[in-house]
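Sequence only, no structure available. Ideas?
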Amino acid sequence: MSSRRISPAEFESCVEEALSAVPAPFRKYLENVVVAVEDEPTDDDYDETDTPDDEEIFGIFRGVSYFDRSHVVSSLPAQIAVFRGPILRCCATRGEAVREIRDTVVHEVGHMLGLDDDEMPY
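Reply:
I predicted one. Tokens follow.
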């Protein structure tokens, strides 16, 4: 089955499953974080991540990292966005897409906790 056949509802379910698989010691930090599935990243997302326009972004953490929140006043909740279009375009199979969704969620949780890309555990 092609990954393109994953419906929006199925994609959201995969994101929810990935979130529930985050180990409990880390999941507690997600309490006040909005996790959203979006079809495509915005131009601002590309600018924020310094990603070239010809590359895909699978997800983004928007906001102040958890451990820096006491130092910064923000009226908006932190947000993790997972981008459906880029993941489905880049994954040939459903299994590959499910793995990428899981990896993207874990990656963005890492950013939420203040890790940079080169500090990620994988």
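The chain has one domain: 3-119.
Hope that gets you unstuck.
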